[in-house]
Write a structure and sequence with these properties.
This protein is of the alpha+beta class. Among the domains are: 1-169, no CATH class; 334-382, no CATH class. It has helices at residues 3-12, 31-39, 43-48, 52-59, 67-79, 81-90, 154-163, 171-175, 183-197, 201-209, 213-217, 219-229, 234-248, 255-264, 268-281, 286-298, 302-315, 321-332, 336-350, 356-361, 372-379; strands at 96-101, 112-120, 126-136, 142-147, 152-153. Strands 1-2-3-4-5 form a five-stranded antiparallel β-sheet. The termini are far apart.
Length: 382
Amino acid sequence: MSLPRAILVMLLGATGLPAGADAPRSAGCEPERVAELIERQRVAAFAQCLDARALAAAALDGLALDDRERKAFADGVAAVKRRVADNFMRQLESQLGRARLLPRRDGASPDTFVVRLDLIDPDGEPGGFNYIAFARTAEGRIGDWYSHAHAASASDVMRQFAATTIREPGALARLLGRQRFDRETAARFTQFAEHLRESRHAEALEALRGLPEGFQASRLGATLLVQVASNLDEDSYRDALDRLARSHGDAPELQFLLVDHHFFREDYDRAIEAVGTFESLVAEDGATNLLRCNALLMAERHPEARAACERSIALEPDFEPPRWSLATIGIKTRDARLTLDTLSGLETAFDYAFDPDVLLENEHYAWLADRPEFKAWADARR
């Protein structure tokens, strides 16, 4: 069979896009520009920033292929890199609010950069975050990227699909933890790959749960379960996170993925610890301090929560969510000055215009009515 065609059709679907060689050096692929391309969903320009051959080499790492097969695979990836870019963007198009390039952490490699994705839910409300760590090649293009919300890289995903199509004995077994697999198990993983490519998440989850328990407990198996279950109902997602925490709960590189698990279990100390571990490995920013603030708020550690929210605002004055958490702290502690100063900050930074009388009709703010701070604040707005 044709190795590149078989793998790439499974991975990306049939495509009529023409082949395109990578340029010697790609202008316009600086980290700031990449974040802008993601936010503006510029597929063609993002594709031009991909180093398809570097991505192919990373995907085939650990698979026993000869030079001819590796070259054929790299040629195939280069031919469909526009489709790779399109798939990346399509996963974000309905949920991306903003893409932010983060400052490089002290000690981080100059060949990497991190973009935070601020996500929104179907109602347009904040829907969480993801952090994408990009690896740059010597030519300044993107050679791979790692999604912290999925604990997987682009090359990891391509390798999983590649191993299901390569005839070389043991390729799938080595990929899946060097276990021995019979034909039925190998076929089930191939079936999982097909379901995942077609976004049939319920069927993909069923196929994964049919694989050996040893694989499901492995890091790859446990993170795949979380990835798939996150697209289904909350019970499935919680169950997958529980399995991941039992098997790999102390792995530093998985802590961001496990923050939801700790919030679900109301284990706020572990959530705070997980955020700190993530910051030490990846980045501290407004969102990590927001997560810390919310965990401290839920734990009713209000002074610490306030400090974390204020740190979030200081790092990113144009980041709205921590201001609402800070207002909640003011409400919980009946601190009129903090509450009103926070509302004033929202007016200044985000063009809100609060009507004092309407505000008092909200049960959360009604207590302000007899506070002297409120009278002065309200008079300035009437």
